[in-house]
């Protein structure tokens, strides 16, 4: 439990609440484990809300002595009041050699980060430097090729959400991941997630990386995700010329083939097709004609 005490001390020092429900820790633990073992999400939510971030932090850190309680804490973490303070404990649990625990913890971190915005960070008096430290931790977790891919993708997602929550206070050092490195990762799931999580408009360096993936990535699912990232900004008024220039003589033919590939997601094909619409060439119009009509896709 020494690791749990360290995590708890750091969490409380950062400002997490010290609320006490009046129940003994053993009763809270039994309730949480019972809810988890019942398979009821509603029961887990109620038990996690009752336990609170303080006790869930200890439960996550004590996985070696009570695995079921740690699993229950990971599942319940997104429901806890002030769940943001659980992020350090969840990142630590996501590094566990226990895959079910690591996956649950990483997913919980992504859910918690996805629910945050800048106003909530201010309301909860969360220091920007604390959030930056969590981005750094998640970025390192996502870059760890020894981790399972579902853990890495969830970490990537959580880092991206936290970066957006910083808004104007964020600087270049707060990037949620190294796109250049992610774009050549051996695992296509991570490459795809890296492009899907990009926000518009793309910076010139990001556009160059995405355009290269459109032309050269061997996985068409990754390539169409990169194309969607590159082309999606056209929907919001981004100038078309830099995007088309970045795609170039190799990217545009591949993009036409991707848009015409009916085995790929209709939504991704439609997002990528914005570039072909502004290109306007006969070859691009031919590829556009293969898209499903409105109302015939989800």
Could you explain how this protein is built, in words?
The chain is an all-alpha fold. The chain has 2 domains: 177 residues; 114 residues, no CATH class. It is 67% helix and 0% strand. The protein has 16 helices and no strands. Helix 3 crosses helix 5 and helix 13 crosses helix 15.
Helix and strand topology:
Layout: H1 2-14, H2 25-38, H3 41-61, H4 67-76, H5 87-94, H6 99-114, H7 118-123, H8 128-143, H9 149-166, H10 179-182, H11 188-196, H12 204-216, H13 220-231, H14 240-259, H15 266-279, H16 282-288
Helix pairs in contact: 1-3, 2-3, 2-4, 3-4, 3-5, 4-6, 5-6, 5-8, 6-9, 8-9, 9-11, 11-13, 12-13, 12-14, 13-14, 13-15, 14-15, 14-16, 15-16
What distance separates the N and C termini? Answer: 49 Å
Could you give the order of the helices and strands?
HHHHHHHHHHHHHHHH
| Average pLDDT metric | 88
Residues in helices, as a percent range? 55-70%
What attributes characterize this protein structure?
298 residues; mainly alpha; 16 helices; 67% helix; disordered N terminus
Summarize the structure.
With 298 residues, this protein is an all-alpha fold. The protein has helices at 2-14, 25-38, 41-61, 67-76, 87-94, 99-114, 118-123, 128-143, 149-166, 179-182, 188-196, 204-216, 220-231, 240-259, 266-279, 282-288.
């Amino acid at each position: 439990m020494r690791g749990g005490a360290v995590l708890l001390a750091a969490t409380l020092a950062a400002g997490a609440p010290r609320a006490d429900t009046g129940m003994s820790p053993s009763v809270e633990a039994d309730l949480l484990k019972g809810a988890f073992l019942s398979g009821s999400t509603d029961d887990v939510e109620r038990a996690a809300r009752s336990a609170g971030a303080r006790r869930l932090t200890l439960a996550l850190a004590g996985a070696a002595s009570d695995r079921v309680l740690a699993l229950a804490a990971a599942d319940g973490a997104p429901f806890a009041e002030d769940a943001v303070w659980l992020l350090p404990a969840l990142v630590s649990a996501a590094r566990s050699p226990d895959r079910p625990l690591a996956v649950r913890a990483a997913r919980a971190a992504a859910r918690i980060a996805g629910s945050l915005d800048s106003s909530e960070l201010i309301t909860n008096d969360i220091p920007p430097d604390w959030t930056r430290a969590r981005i750094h931790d998640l970025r390192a977790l996502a870059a760890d090729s020894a981790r399972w891919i579902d853990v890495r993708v969830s970490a990537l997602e959580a880092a991206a959400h936290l970066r957006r929550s910083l808004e104007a206070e964020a600087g270049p050092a707060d990037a949620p991941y190294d796109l250049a490195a992610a774009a050549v990762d051996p695992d296509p799931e991570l490459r795809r997630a890296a492009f899907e999580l990009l926000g518009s408009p793309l910076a010139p360096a990001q556009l160059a990386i995405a355009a290269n993936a459109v032309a050269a990535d061997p996985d068409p699912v990754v390539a169409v995700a990169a194309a969607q990232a590159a082309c999606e900004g056209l929907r919001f008024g981004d100038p078309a010329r830099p995007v088309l220039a970045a795609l170039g003589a190799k990217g545009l033919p591949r993009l036409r083939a991707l848009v015409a590939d009916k085995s790929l997601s209709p939504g991704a094909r439609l997002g990528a097709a914005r570039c072909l619409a502004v290109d306007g060439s006969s070859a691009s119009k031919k590829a556009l004609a293969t898209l499903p009509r409105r109302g015939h896709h989800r």
